[in-house]
């Protein structure tokens, strides 16, 4: 007797996750991701000239926002959203109503594992987020919650429950995520190593967060995922995701939340111009030598029991401590406060109807 064909499986967290994509170009890259993304809702944040028409392949459920939408929705608070920089993606985090966010750059494609199988990056991110992190004690078999792994001998039973995972940081094959000086001295270097591992970034340890292949629990850590004030009109660029990563990690450590890094891999298809990048990064290369020790030593007050309170306290520390390094950090700290004000305005239960109707944003199903 013939069996009926099996129904198409519903993707994990289909109605609980938004995919956020910053772009300045047509999104033809989505064709390669169609099998993995088509059933999810996309939030596309168009950078640059708002009069330019961005083409999105048919069949995707999406909303497209440009700078005019940002200004209309946020009003004076739109000043905290970067212009002509991929940091504009955090506007998508702001307007999303979902529990989870996955963000990817438009020059990233589907990678293959060593067996030649296409990697469902989104599915792996979801698995990372739905299992705990081991923030307080390192497990030498990496993620003990993965199938085929467990806690090794000597791992305290009292810590095996782990901590909620707030962020899943994925990696990339092909073009490495290098800064401009490293790009210049290693122009032909490619990452071909596929390491089949997921690990928790330990409590008290910072890391360089890349925004091109990243997922997070918006309800747990969303207000801390501000990608800084970068790009047009600012003295620095290409540190937006780094800044968010440093702020987020300090707050996760304070609140007892976890961060994972490793799988999944995507295929990073092209390297940006190292000379253009050097101009954007130049001051940041020096400033990071002051910023990183600041984040390593900063301590948040015990009464900071929410992400918003933590972030505002951190903004105050940035202004008082890093403001001595350069006046830019005073401006950045003010933007951090504005970001939280914008977050609360858009996401408060009593938000104004104008905030939710979004009549000028392009939508398509």
TrEMBL record:
<comment type="similarity">
    <text>Belongs to the RGP family.</text>
</comment>
<keyword id="KW-0961">Cell wall biogenesis/degradation</keyword>
<keyword id="KW-0333">Golgi apparatus</keyword>
<feature type="site" description="Required for activity">
    <location>
        <position position="160"/>
    </location>
</feature>
<protein>
    <recommendedName>
        <fullName>UDP-arabinopyranose mutase</fullName>
        <ecNumber>5.4.99.30</ecNumber>
    </recommendedName>
</protein>
<comment type="function">
    <text>Probable UDP-L-arabinose mutase involved in the biosynthesis of cell wall non-cellulosic polysaccharides.</text>
</comment>
<dbReference type="GO" id="GO:0009505">
    <property type="term" value="C:plant-type cell wall"/>
</dbReference>
<feature type="site" description="Required for activity">
    <location>
        <position position="153"/>
    </location>
</feature>
<feature type="glycosylation site" description="N-linked (Glc...) arginine">
    <location>
        <position position="153"/>
    </location>
</feature>
<dbReference type="GO" id="GO:0033356">
    <property type="term" value="P:UDP-L-arabinose metabolic process"/>
</dbReference>
<dbReference type="GO" id="GO:0071669">
    <property type="term" value="P:plant-type cell wall organization or biogenesis"/>
</dbReference>
<dbReference type="GO" id="GO:0071555">
    <property type="term" value="P:cell wall organization"/>
</dbReference>
<dbReference type="GO" id="GO:0052691">
    <property type="term" value="F:UDP-arabinopyranose mutase activity"/>
</dbReference>
<dbReference type="GO" id="GO:0005829">
    <property type="term" value="C:cytosol"/>
</dbReference>
<keyword id="KW-0413">Isomerase</keyword>
<dbReference type="InterPro" id="IPR029044">
    <property type="entry name" value="Nucleotide-diphossugar_trans"/>
</dbReference>
<keyword id="KW-0325">Glycoprotein</keyword>
<dbReference type="InterPro" id="IPR037595">
    <property type="entry name" value="RGP_fam"/>
</dbReference>
<dbReference type="GO" id="GO:0005794">
    <property type="term" value="C:Golgi apparatus"/>
</dbReference>
<dbReference type="Pfam" id="PF03214">
    <property type="entry name" value="RGP"/>
</dbReference>
<dbReference type="InterPro" id="IPR004901">
    <property type="entry name" value="RGP"/>
</dbReference>
